[in-house]
Amino acid sequence: MNPETRLMVRGAAAVAILVLVTGCRQDMHDQPRIKPLGANSFFADGQGARPLPAGAVARGDLRENREFWTGTNADGVPLQALPMPVSRELLIRGRERYGIFCSPCHGATGEGTGMVVRRGYKAPSSYHIDRLRLAPVGYFFDVMTNGFGVMPSYASQVPPADRWAIAAYIRTLQLSQHFDAGVLLPEERARLDAPVPAVEPSAPAH
Length: 206
Ligand code: HEC
Prior knowledge:
- The chain is mainly α.
- The protein has a domain at about 85-195: Cytochrome c-like domain (Cytochrome Bc1 Complex, Chain D, domain 2, Orthogonal Bundle), CATH 1.10.760.
- The protein contains 10 helices and no strands.
- The structure holds heme C.
């Protein structure tokens, strides 16, 4: 073995030993720690998981804008107007979300005769009855947030911005069924009679 080869062999042996020795270290595995939700004698209540400190807020969940989060004003009265400007984007988003989450029961036009209802689920009131046409827009947000009768809450599936978009779209549906098309100019009337453009799926709002 010439000196260079010997050096290389020694080097390789040193690396192999280093790998073996460090591979045996278990410090990170064995350190004392509390398993999530496991029992632990360290705390007086015997639980490893600690209660949240009072007033803790999850990231992105600071509900400082009461109207946006609850649909009601400081007196608990449902809002008469959307807490954001109405835009074409908002209505398109609302139409898309309504189609996904509400139309299975309430139907595409809000008559309350969606496919689930036709299969036997309780029929909701039509959105076009006077009581619901006169209901404040915040009422629709509230029903989506808290549920109504047999209808469950949609708060966990539909984030608040989308609930407002849907509420705005329901207003559009209501107008669509109670609009005097006779007041339209001929070119506007032609646009009304034109086929409805397909809805492009949009990214989820937060
Ligand atoms: C699984 C079927 C179903 C789905 C999906 C559904 N609803 Fe409902 N909804 C109902 C039923 C049934 C009622 C009536 C409940 C009752 O009277 O017990 C109702 C009631 C309502 C009411 C109250 C009407 C009133 O009479 O005051 C509103 C507003 C409403 N739904 C909006 C929505 C919106 C918006 C969505 C979509 C986010 C939605 N619903 C999704 C079944 C559904």
